Amino acid sequence: MASATFTNLNSLSSQWIGQPSSFSSRPGSSIRLAARRVSVPIRASYTDELIQTAKSIASPGRGILAIDESNATCGKRLASIGLDNTETNRQAYRQLLLTTPGLGEYISGAILFEETLYQSTIDGKKFVDCLREENIVPGIKVDKGLVPLPGSNNESWCQGLDGLASRSAEYYKQGARFAKWRTVVSIPSGPSALAVKEAAWGLARYASISQDNGLVPIVEPEILLDGDHPIERTLEVAEKVWAEVFFYLAENNVVFEGILLKPSMVTPGAEHKERASPETIAKYTLTMLKRRVPPAVPGIMFLSGGQSEVEATLNLNAMNQSPNPWHVSFSYARALQNSVLKTWQGQPENVEAAQKALLVRAKANSLAQLGRYSAEGENEEAKKGMFVKGYTY
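^ thats the sequence. predicted structure below, dont judge the formating
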């Protein structure tokens, strides 16, 4: 993690966020920085493809289905309906999702776990081919999970950079065209400056490596819902995190037109005494984005982070009531899958009904991306929150 280069970048980043004028206070520093940036050529072999892929995913009325849960996390989902965590059961569930007829009308990309990327249906058809037939771009989770960050306030950092280039090249050969790397920031833990810098630097290195190997990187520093803080505190932390992220993305010569973002919505902490309306969440979230995200970025694909299915859709809809510089959409896991699992119950005779449940949720979020969603007719189950304190993937 630590190196002479990284230490220098940390110093520059801190001054850039806290003291914008400090570059000019050191003779020649801004000139050296500018010269270093323009002297490094942008990767050329995949640039056009990256931009086209990002645009395809960020297409009107569509978003991302995230089914990249690790085997352990998928096991928790299966256990909730009384199924054992076996490869056969995981394959059956993911086949249900990925073979849903008409899914491509509402879903533009699907994030897969490595196991799923290499799996096929029981009839022998590759899952990536099932997606392509629906005009859905296959994606792949590439991080190796969170581990404790030494020297921090009980915080985490994301591992997986070792060997990432070779793994990404293999994923591209298998059919993946975008990637996902999730790291987290905890407001109750500070967050510490160390944790924020580590998250931003890791995301930037991953993004650069992904683009070098033909994968559009989804940049995801999730600001966890845990805590009792007000929405103003979430906004403050989100602005700091995204400032650092984009600083390091630029330092690593990442092509902004060939990335997607997966931010948390700006909400109060899950244990805050007052809940915020969709209109308030939209106001604060869009304020953060407009202050920190360049319009060159094609798509903002929000995570649901434990919100209820309806809540996540209402908040997305509120953000699309007026034009945005980017495609503002969704990359939901639990907020698309909860009703599906409860409908399926692991029974073959329920597959068709479960697929219809997925289409209901996908269509609702499609309408929200277009700013046309109404919660009228939603059932009570879809309104139940899914936040779990200290949730791990």
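Residues 153 and 189 are 6 Å apart (CA to CA).
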